[in-house]
Specification:
Layout (H helix, E strand, L loop, with lengths): L4 H9 E4 L4 E5 L2 E4 L5 H9 L10 E4 L10 H4 L2 H17 L3 E2 L9 H7 L8 E4 L13 E4 L2 H10 L1 E5 L2 E8 L8 H12 L7 E6 L1 H4 L3 H10 L7 E3 L4 H13 L6 H8 L11 E6 L6 E3 L7 E3 L13 H13 L15 E4 L1 H4 L2 H11 L9 E4 L4 H9 L2 H8 L2 E2 L21 E4 L14 E4 L2 H10 L9
Parallel strand pairs: 3-4, 3-6, 4-5, 6-7, 9-10, 9-12, 10-11, 15-16, 15-18, 16-17, 18-19
Antiparallel strand pairs: 1-2, 2-8, 13-14
The protein binds 3-isopropylmalic acid and iron/sulfur cluster.
């Protein structure tokens, strides 16, 4: 059998073939948050249906919640209504919910792996495009829309067209200080924001298997920014060690049979993929976006391009518009760009490892006077761990604002942390679309290390500039 990991998972979760290209797929886990779910519950109610597997459904509050105090939610009528609706729906349908500030709460894609809700060889869906994150643990995880949410709530299944498979092999090793975020930006620039459409990307190669679990999550998270339906990485010792720790912290070490089963969730050595891409990790540098989609990124030894540098007309138009929106001139260097805000957080880079990198750079240094640096932990667990390690003190001493409540925050600007028109950020999140962090606000996506160095310098900066 020459099965890819994708095929193994797909076949074991196929309830029924619905013709040549479509199958009915069973889902082991369904995650929910306050956005995109109210209509699904309304339809369920109207159809007099129940949630078929509330035990396989978990909700959290993350997108529009405040990060300074729980009380702030009370004073915010619109956002409180959205959160209250989720609370009401979860209580009516018997779905476990992590409320703002409760142990276990945080960004959907941060809390599920850290709580052991995500296992190799399984399937997972969520009303959110960055569900691709979870594929780092060798499962098939992807985002779905509101009507699909209703279908999964009612049946725990969905009909799906088969995905195509793409293998991205990243050979050699990433250089010191080059992160999974830099690699993700490099890949998106290489294959384009539409390069992954219709595919599940499996990442493999020495550079991938040398990454920590958290770094793998960053990479899989960004797969959707290349248009892919999912990202996935086969099980190896890093996966097993990560899961073992989670299981132990949950009070039950994994059984040897379980571990042996997890180990089978890899593509067979002779598996055939629909598309193959090979990348040399050694050529990846620190990358920062200059434009308004994640593929419009450069490294520090490049200059802001002119739109005429692109051969494709639609890319030319996109670049022209991006240069205008971002108020940048061709030929400028990244280091010339002054910034107002730095955001550390999100489901891409809001994990403990990311906060450690930031603390390592901030320690003994100060955030530039004009810069507002906001650090939002991805979950309560991440926050508590950061405090245990004394990272909060380092952040405070440097003049950064370490928030006490986790959530998406400035990543999508749905809470009070959105930017004002004309403000410019370096952000560790994943999207730099026009208005993403506030109407008329400009976003430069980068790694935690670049974001921290930029906060200190008051302009986009590389850690080696310090
Ligand atoms: C609000 C939600 C549906 C959305 C998504 O699907 O990704 C958000 O998380 C985002 O990052 O833009
Ligand atoms: S942190 Fe950002 S990208 Fe992730 S789920 Fe929240 S809004 Fe979406």
């Amino acid at each position: 059998m020459a099965n890819t990991l994708l095929e193994k998972i797909w076949q074991s979760h196929c309830v029924k073939h619905l013709g040549d290209t479509e199958d009915l797929i069973y889902f082991d886990m369904h995650l929910l948050h306050e956005i995109n779910t109210p209509q699904a519950f309304d339809s369920l109610r109207a159809d007099k249906r129940i949630v078929r597997r509330p035990d396989l459904t978990v909700a959290t509050e993350d997108h529009n919640t405040p990060t300074r105090s729980i009380e702030a939610l009370q004073g915010d009528v619109l956002r409180r209504q959205q959160v209250d609706l989720l609370r009401h729906n979860c209580s009516e349908f018997g779905i476990p919910l992590y409320k703002l500030g409760e142990p276990g709460q945080g960004i959907t894609h941060v809390i599920a792996p850290e709580q052991g809700l995500v296992l190799p060889g399984t399937t997972l869906v969520c009303c959110d495009s960055h569900t691709t994150t979870h594929g780092a643990l060798a499962l098939l995880a992807f985002g779905i829309g509101t009507s699909q949410v209703e279908h999964v709530l009612a049946t725990q299944t969905l009909r799906f067209q088969k995905f195509k498979s793409m293998r991205i092999t990243v050979e050699n090793s990433l250089r010191a200080n080059i992160s999974a975020k830099d690699l993700a930006l490099y890949i998106i620039r290489h294959i384009g924001t539409g390069g992954g459409i219709g595919y599940v990307i499996e990442y493999t190669g020495n550079a991938i298997h040398s990454l920590s679990m958290e770094a793998r999550m960053t990479l899989c998270n960004m797969s959707v920014e290349a248009g892919a339906s999912a990202g996935i990485i086969g099980v190896d010792d890093v996966t097993i060690d990560y899961l073992r720790k989670i299981f132990v912290s949950n009070g039950r070490p994994p059984l040897e049979e379980e571990i042996e089963r997890w180990r089978t969730f890899v593509s067979n050595s002779d598996a055939i993929f629909d598309k193959e891409i090979v990348i040399d990790a050694a050529v990846v540098n620190e990358n920062v976006t200059w434009g308004t989609n994640p593929s419009q990124n450069i490294c520090f030894n490049e200059r802001i391009p002119d739109f005429t540098d692109y051969s494709d007309t639609s890319q030319q138009q996109a670049a022209k518009r991006a240069l205008e929106y971002m108020k940048l001139k061709p030929g400028q260097s990244l280091q010339d760009i002054l910034i107002d805000k730095v955001f550390i957080g999100s489901c891409t880079n809001g994990r403990i490892e990311d906060l450690r990198v930031v603390a390592g750079i901030l320690e003994g240094r100060s955030v530039y006077l004009n810069v507002d640096m906001v650090i939002v932990p991805g979950s309560i667990k991440v926050r508590d761990q950061a405090i245990r390690e004394g990272l909060d003190k380092i952040f405070k001493e440097a003049g950064a604002d370490f928030r006490s409540l986790p959530g998406c925050s400035m990543c999508c600007g749905l809470n009070e942390d959105s930017m004002r028109e004309g403000q410019r950020s370096v952000s560790t999140s994943n999207r730099n679309f026009e208005g993403r962090q506030g109407t008329g606000a400009m976003t430069h996506i980068a790694s935690p290390a670049v974001a921290a160095a930029s906060a200190i310098m008051g302009r986009i900066a590389c850690p080696s500039d310090l």
